[in-house]
Amino acid sequence: MELSLLLLPVFFISSLRCNSLPQNSPQADAFIGTSLQAVAAAHPILQNQPFILVWNMPTANCPQRYNIHLDLGDFHIVENKKERFQGQKMTIFYRDHLGKYPYLSRNGKKVNGGLPQLGDLASHLSLTVTQLSDLLLPDFSGLAVIDWEEWRPLWETNFGSKMEYRRLSKLLVKQEQPDLSERAVTSLARQMFEESARKFMEETLQSAVGERPKGFWGFYGFPACVNKNKRKTDKTYTGRCLRGTRQQNDELSWLWTKSSALYPSIYLPQKLAGSADAALMVRHRLLEALRVASGWPYHNNTDHATPVLPYARLAFTHSLKFLSKMDLEHTLGESASLGAAGVVLWGELKFAKNKKQCVLLRDYVHNVLGPFVRSLRSDAERCSLQVCHGNGRCTRRHLGSGHRLSDSSKHFQKHFMCHCYQGWTGQGCQDKKSESREEED
C-alpha cells in the first residue's frame, strides 16, 4: 500500500462521498479503485477464507422428503444445519417475519398501518426483539438479512407500483392540512415519509444488533444500482448505474453506518445469458457497494470496510433456468475478483417443489455449481496466500480490466493487488502494524 494512502485515510474516505468527478466515467472508477484502498479490507467472516459462498435456499425438502442430497459441504458451500432456511449461519427475514413492518398488500390493503408514518414503531421494535430471541442463539454470528421490498426509504425511488406510497402520503397531508398548496403538500409528505421510513429501518437495525451483536446485519438490495438496461446516452451497454445513484446512496449514510454487512443484488435477467454485458452489470453494482462500504463503514469505524456479500440466484430472474459456467463467472467470479467477502446464493421454494426439481438441482450442484465454487474459493485463497501472505484479499489492479482469478492463477501479481486486512500493511500485507502506528493512521 502506498505511503500516501496510509497517511491520508480520512481524505480518501471523504473523497468517496463526494461527486467532484463525473459519476459515469473511467476516471471516476479509477479514483474509486484507489480510494477503496484507504480503508482496510473487511475481515473474513463465517470461515477463515477471503471469499465464501453461502446457501440461502429453502431446500430441506430434497433430503428430508425425497432423500435427495445436495452435498453442499463437499463443495465448501456454507449452509445451515439440515439445510434449514433460517439458522445460525444464515437467516433472512421477510416482511411478515420481523416485527410489524408497514406496507400495502397487492390488493391495496394497509398492513400494519400501510405507510411508514402510520406504523406503530414501538410495537414493531418490541415484537422484533421477541422474535429474534426466539429464533437466534445469543452468540449468533451468522449473516442476517432483512428483506423489505415494498417501499424504499427515499421518496423519489418509489416509482412504478411503489408510487402508491407517495400518493397516499400526500393524501394524508391533505386530510390533515387541506389549505396547503400542492407543492407544500408534496414537500411535507416527502419529509414525513422519509423520516418515518428512516426510523423503521434504522431502529430495526439498532434493535437487531443490540440483541445479536455478533451477527452481520443488513438490508437485501442495498445499496442499489439501477443498471439493467442501456442508458439513452450510451451507444453500447456500459453497465454503469443510472446518473444520480451515488448521490441517492450518499443520502442513506445513516443506513450504511448501522449496517454490519451490505447485501446488494446481482440477479441476472435472462436477456444477459452468456453475455459479457452480465459482467458489466455485476461489476458496477459491486463497485457502488464497495464504495459505500469504504465510505461509510459500520459505526463509522475507519479501521476497516463493511463486508459486501451480494445476493445471486442460481437461475435467471423469474425462471428456474440455471446459470451456465460462464454466467457463474460473470456473477460469482466477478464478485471474487473485485474483492467481495463472499456471495449469498438465493432461491425460492420452487427449486425444491418436487422430486424432479430436486434431482435437477442436485445434478446442477454436483456437476456445475459445486465444482465452480470449489475452484473459485481455492483461487481466491491461493491468491491471498501467494500475493498477500494470507493477510489480505486480492482485488483487480484495474477494476474494469475483466481479469479473473481463475484465469490468472499463474499471474496473480500481474493482474491483482492486495487489500490488506486491519492490522496489516505493505504491498503484500507482509508488515504488521504496531498499535501506535494504527492509532496514527
Automatic annotation (TrEMBL):
Organism name: Haplochromis burtoni
Signal peptide range: 1-18
Disulphide bridges: 62-358, 225-241, 383-394, 388-418, 420-429
EC number: 3.2.1.35
Family of this protein: Belongs to the glycosyl hydrolase 56 family.
GO biological process: carbohydrate metabolic process; hyaluronan catabolic process
EGF-like domain mapped to chain residues: 379-430
Transmembrane segments: none
Keywords: Disulfide bond, EGF-like domain, Glycosidase, Hydrolase, Signal
GO cellular component: acrosomal vesicle
Signal is among the record's keywords: yes
Domain of life from the UniProt record: Eukaryota
Pfam families: Glyco_hydro_56
Name of the protein this chain belongs to: Hyaluronidase
GO molecular function: hyalurononglucosaminidase activity
PANTHER family found in the cross-reference section: HYALURONIDASE, HYALURONIDASE-3
InterPro entries recorded: Aldolase_TIM, EGF, GH, Hyaluronidase
Catalysed reactions listed for this entry: Random hydrolysis of (1->4)-linkages between N-acetyl-beta-D-glucosamine and D-glucuronate residues in hyaluronate
Annotated catalytic residues: 149 (proton donor)
